[in-house]
Write a structure and sequence with these properties.
The chain is mainly α. The longest helix has 35 residues. The N and C termini lie far apart (86 Å).
Length: 233
C-alpha cells in the first residue's frame, strides 16, 4: 500500500510539474498582455475624447488622430516604393546610384506635393465656389480645404521620410566613412536644399498663377473676407 501511495504521489507530482511548466508565463507573454491592455486603454480614451462635450476638444482630438494616421500611411507608402526601387529596380547597382535614386524620390515627392496642393486648392478653377449648389459656400470651402490638407500632409510626410532616407544614404558614402566628422555637414546641406526648394516653389507658384491669368471669382473673393479665426475652424 505504501509503495502504491508513493507511486501515486509521484505521478501527481509529475503531472503538476508538467502543468506548471506548460502554463508558466514567459517575458514575451507578459509583454503582449501589457501591450494589449495598453491598446484597450488608448482606444477607450479616444472614444471618450471624440465624444467630449467641448467642441474644441473633439476638433483637436480628430486632428491628432488624422495626423497620426497620415504619418503611418506615409511611412508604409514610402517604404513600399523605396523597397521596390532599391531591391528590384536597382538590385545590382552601386552605392552612389542608390544615393541618386534616394535624391530623386525626395525631389519627386516634393514636386508631387506642390502639384496636388495647387490642384486641390481650387486656384486653377475659374469658379472654385458655386452659388446655388447643394452645399453652401462655406461648406464648399471646407471641403476643398480638407482635401488640400489631406494630400499636403500625406505627401509632406512622404517627402520628410524620403529626405531622412536620402541624408542617411548620403552619410554612408565612402568619403563620410573615411572622415566621420563630415557626416555633420549633411544636416546644413539638407537645410539649405529644402530652403532653396521652398523659395523656388513659392516663386514658381506665384508666377504660374499670375501669368496663367487665374483671377479669383467674385464669390471666392467675397468668401475670403470671412474672419480668419472662423475660417480656420
Amino acid at each position: 500500500v505504501k509503495k502504491k501511495d508513493h507511486k501515486t504521489r509521484s505521478v501527481y507530482s509529475g503531472i503538476a510539474t508538467d502543468l506548471q511548466e506548460e502554463h508558466s508565463m514567459s517575458h514575451g507573454d507578459l509583454t503582449i498582455s501589457l501591450m494589449l491592455f495598453g491598446f484597450i486603454i488608448i482606444v477607450m480614451g479616444l472614444f471618450w475624447l471624440v465624444n467630449d462635450p467641448d467642441e474644441d476638444m473633439r476638433y483637436y482630438t480628430w486632428s491628432v488622430i488624422s495626423s497620426t494616421i497620415s504619418i503611418f500611411v506615409g511611412v508604409l507608402m514610402f517604404v513600399s516604393v523605396n523597397a521596390v526601387v532599391h531591391e528590384v529596380v536597382l538590385e545590382d547597382s552601386g552605392h552612389w546610384t542608390h544615393v541618386l535614386a534616394d535624391m530623386s524620390q525626395m525631389v519627386f515627392y516634393l514636386i508631387v506635393m506642390q502639384i496636388l496642393v495647387l490642384r486641390c486648392s481650387g486656384v486653377l478653377e475659374d469658379e472654385p465656389f458655386t452659388e446655388g449648389s447643394d452645399l453652401t459656400i462655406r461648406e464648399q470651402r471646407d471641403q476643398k480645404l480638407t482635401m488640400m490638407k489631406c494630400w499636403a500632409m500625406l505627401t509632406g510626410h512622404m517627402s520628410g521620410f524620403a529626405s531622412i532616407n536620402f541624408g542617411g544614404s548620403l552619410q554612408h558614402g565612402k568619403i563620410f566613412q573615411d572622415y566621420p566628422i563630415y557626416t555633420f555637414w549633411v544636416v546644413p546641406m539638407m537645410y539649405v536644399f529644402h530652403s532653396m526648394f521652398g523659395w523656388i516653389a513659392s516663386k514658381a507658384r506665384r508666377r504660374f498663377i499670375h501669368q496663367g491669368g487665374f483671377k479669383p471669382s467674385k464669390v471666392s473673393h467675397r468668401y475670403s473676407t470671412i474672419p480668419t479665426a472662423e475660417a480656420e475652424r
